[in-house]
């Protein structure tokens, strides 16, 4: 991936052949199809080109990222050229917002599809096909010196023909950058359940192998319908990732999955990053021999699926309903989690019904989780380091 150039800086990257306009008046926003920490994504019409696109509207006031970084991420997306990574057609700023125009991925994210119709996860050939495509995207990014830093089912998008692309460069980092960006690799970025231990620890920084850990967690997420530890409050996720043995597919409990799948996941989820394979090496694993075509994905995942907007709205309503049912706010729960941690890990107790309902909620507890963990980071790492001798 080249560095940002003037063409991209002007917002006129414009896809391979078509020139996408850089004025908001040229886009008609339709229904909401996704929401992130600081952005809302819409299906939209690019009027001059008469083409359906996705427009991500990033609200500068809602993001805690540096403005230059956000703009640079959008520019990076414009320069991307790989079938398994979402490219931005163009981007432009308007008032307090940045508009990023992308190809419309009609299937939505794997997380959305899973929540709508496969709540307990996908079958193995589907997982192998999705993961092979994701790995090809990661291989490309890593080869060009980039780390994605937020690999998870919610950021794996499916197009109308079953094509799989890695999206969301909200937190990606360039390996060969210096200054601010270099410092960014020593900061705490990502989503707790998918985050590699070395990213949490913040001791020696991290490299592309952090994506391989997240990739392994994503494999478990696609297999079970949720990421390991997703039921727990952020502080506990942090502790479990740092102190417990890495999660994996259980040889007994996960009988329906092959040995090859279990081995592939185990290779990714090694705590020592230097022992994790590269994306290129992983692609050679026998597990991927069962991966099929994009037609297979279209047939298996997209046939009979309601439109993305309809599904998104239904999930949002379900989440809101579950949120309303929750007995405690996330803030209160996290407070208790920290208090209990101070008293000793073994004294933690959980309301399983509540945790189950939390687990099926959409990932929108993440902004809170990110902030909360960031603030608690120094204290927690200190505690863990000083507890190790007693608890491990
Ligand atoms: N090109 C696209 N086509 C269809 N849906 C999309 C597209 N881009 C994003 N989405 C949907 O919007 C959701 C949010 O987008 P995105 O992840 O880019 O926002 P974000 O603010 O960076 O999120 P976060 O930081 O929470 O991961 C995605 O999970 C996906 O469901």
Automatic annotation (TrEMBL):
Keyword Thylakoid attached: no
Xref: InterPro entries: Kinase-like_dom_sf, Prot_kinase_dom, Protein_kinase_ATP_BS, STRAD_A/B-like
Keywords: ATP-binding, Nucleotide-binding
Record domain Protein kinase: where: 27-288
Residues involved in ATP binding: 56
Domain of life: Eukaryota
GO molecular function list: ATP binding; protein kinase activity; protein serine/threonine kinase activator activity
A Pfam family hit: Pkinase
CDD domains: STKc_OSR1_SPAK (cd06610)
The keyword Phosphoprotein is assigned to this record: no
Family: Belongs to the protein kinase superfamily. STE Ser/Thr protein kinase family. STE20 subfamily.
Name of the featured protein: Protein kinase domain-containing protein
Taxonomic classification: Eukaryota, Viridiplantae, Streptophyta, Embryophyta, Tracheophyta
